[in-house]
Amino acid sequence: MAPDAERPTHLLHRLTSYTPEREWTEVPDDDRLVQDLVPNDVTRRPRSYKRYDDDLRRVLLPPDLPASSAAATAVLAGTATVAPSRLDLPGLARLLFLSSGVTRRTTRPDGGVMLFRAAGSAGARFPLELYVAVPRGAGVEGLEPGLHWYDPEAHALVVLGPAPSGDAVTVVVTGVPWRTGWRYRERGFRHIYWDAGTMLAQTLALADAAGLTARLFTTFPDAEVAALVGADRVHEFPVALVALGPGDPAVHLTGDPMSGHHDADGLEFPLVTAAQRAGEQRRLGAELERGAPVALTAEGGPSTDAVVVSKGSIRRLHPDRSLPRHVLVDAMSASLRGIDVPHWLGVSGVDDVPTGIHRWPDLASPVRPLDERSVRDELFAAALEQGLARDAAFVAMSGAPLDDLDDHAYREAQLLAGVAEGRLHLMAYALGAAASGMTFRDSDLAHLLGTDVAGLLWTCVGVPEYRTRPSGQPGSPADVTIVWPR
Question: Which of 24, 239, 367, 473 has its CA 20 to 30 A from that of 36?
């Protein structure tokens, strides 16, 4: 790369940064961005998930899921004592459904059914697909070796191809940029990695709670993994691997997979393709280190499974109710275990913590001391006037110096910010609070945080005004009503 050339991910970040000069739905006048897209066009709304031909063999997964009893807080803190277990078909069904299965549904204002998955997604776009690669010799009891795609609505595995070579049963996570781009244009590239991290936090916690080995890989041979699952690296590309056992992930192709179907009118975003390709690797990297266990103030509480089932999209928080200090400390400590992504906190309603902007983990001396109203007003403005940022007890904000990130490190930073956010969701609900992801106006961050970093992801945490209806069972999603934000 020439010394004065801008990295594709840096270019994408700059061109998709929100500023006061335009609405978030408006596209900058730059021909490297798709200019003729009408965001949120209901006449070309993307489908909720990929499709495969009906004549392919399907394996119906058990609807009765085994449950773990380990407290979610202890699991996320790394202090839970759980006996090791072997992966079988019911255990795999639990991991898949509570990570990406359809758990709730509602009727859209414009008609049609909106499906919600077990893990949250910005704008309910749900851009992820899951594949299960089962090698010979280290398989899943009750499931034949082979490559399988998870149908999130039918709760079934579709057989796509022969068993790959490798050591460990592997979940391959891919992203579909048209699903997020339909709403967020090229900025949807960021959302894919945020959503992947959010879901993976849930997957890893569920595995840990059941005593299963689960190892996250964010560096892998992209082209080989894409070929394994039949992704063209334009309309679909791999973002992460989870090995459910020891040894190398089973991602080595031994035969061509069956082809699936994406939206026929789905657009390609050339800048997204370039950014993704620029970060591709040729070799398997190290697994994500989980980090040392952290001590928590609170002990016990609901199980990981119970938290996943109970939490949902929260759109309203009590602006006049505060959270205890230990909720912030425990939630942040567990969420950032093993994750080296800088975080700031906008604190407006936490007992015994000064209001203002803090650089975690320093809660004694804000980098910007502000009164409660000023904190809430600044967060509200920077969050594009979304009420959750104003009403939260605290807002966790991740960011990183862009110049320190190459193209692969950029997408990894976005994903790890999502992992931290996913853990923060789980911890918040386990501790009796609630959380919601949030986007922001990039140009406001330098003033807000008191330093110049590339913004990654926000999470608003506070006291909920209501509780969402618990998730339904596999094949029977709970019917819910949309609560509109203030």
Answer: 239
Element (H, E) at 225: helix 222-229
Q: Is residue 174 part of a domain?
A: yes
Closest of 440, 3, 387, 422 to residue 194, by C-alpha: 422
- Rounding to the nearest 10 degrees, give the CA dihedral for residues 388, 458, 266, 35: 90
- Measured CA to CA, the distance from residue 395 to residue 438 in angstroms comes to 9
For residue range 235-287, what is the model confidence (pLDDT) as tens digits? 999 999 999 999 999 999 999 999 999 999 999 999 999 999 999 999 999 99
Structural domain of residue 196, as residue ranges? Answer: 10-278
The pLDDT, as a whole number, for residue 301 is 96
Kindly report the CATH number assigned to the domain that includes residue 372. 3.40.109.10
DSSP 3-state percent helix, strand, coil across the chain (nearest 5): 30, 20, 50
In percent, the amount of the chain with pLDDT more than 70 equals: 99
> Does residue 380 sit in the same domain as residue 255?
no
Burial of 36 per CB tally in 10 Å (0-12, 13-18, 19+): exposed
Q: Which two tokens stand for residue 402?
A: 């862009």
Instruction: List pLDDT tens digits, range 213-235.
Output: 999 999 999 999 999 999 999 99
Asked which of 258, 278, 298 is the last residue of a domain, the reply is: 278
Residue 180 lies in a domain: yes
